[in-house]
Amino acid sequence: MYLIVGLGNIGKEYQNTRHNIGFEIADYFSTKYQIPINKVKFNADYGTGSIEGKKILLVKPRTFMNNSGEAVADFADYFQIPDEDILIIYDDIELDTGVVRIRKKGGSGTHNGMRSIVSLLDSKIFPRVRIGVGKNGRIPLVKYVLGRFTPQQRPIMDETVKEASTAVYDCIVHGLDYAMNHHNMKKKKEEPHESE
Fold first, then answer.
1. pLDDT tens digits, one per residue of 18-41
2. Is residue 19 annotated as a catalytic residue, yes or no?
3. What is the reported pTM?
4. For residue 64, is it within any domain?
5. What is the DSSP secondary structure assignment for residue 46, as one 8-state letter?
6. Inter-helix orientation angle 21-32/153-173, to 10°
7. Domain containing 105 — which CATH number?
8. Catalytic, out of 19, 111, 183, 193
């Protein structure tokens, strides 16, 4: 069984913000692969299904981002899912807007949701799909990640959501090495000059 977790903040005020791109991808993945997120457990919305015979738990924590690890750890413990079968999808300011990068393991960087997951799993050895949202030195970090994509960025991110969903599929069906070879080498998407 695979545990796929898209990170974000619950609530309308956070919809479509940079910090919620993990939720967007989970929702798109849910629709594309017919895994409805229609249940609640461990303070998270989730759905169950299968892809190519592999069982899937698709989760969106209801906690705020800073406590994302609570739901992840609870699901992993309850369903006895090993760390290597946990896949976290989240925004990353260290990557250019629209870039998708898969990693087998690593630290949390500046991301509070990942920090919570690493802490409560007591592990850094779980795969993740990082979604580039860029950064803007003129805007405080919290305000930036809780802001929405510019009109120029939105079409790029719509395509990124689709690509990231395919990347998650490839991780599960074809394995991490295949997915990394097919997605990590793609070039940065061309972004119009940001006027924000």
1. 999 999 999 999 999 999 999 999
2. yes
3. 0.90
4. yes
5. E
6. 60
7. 3.40.50.1470
8. 19
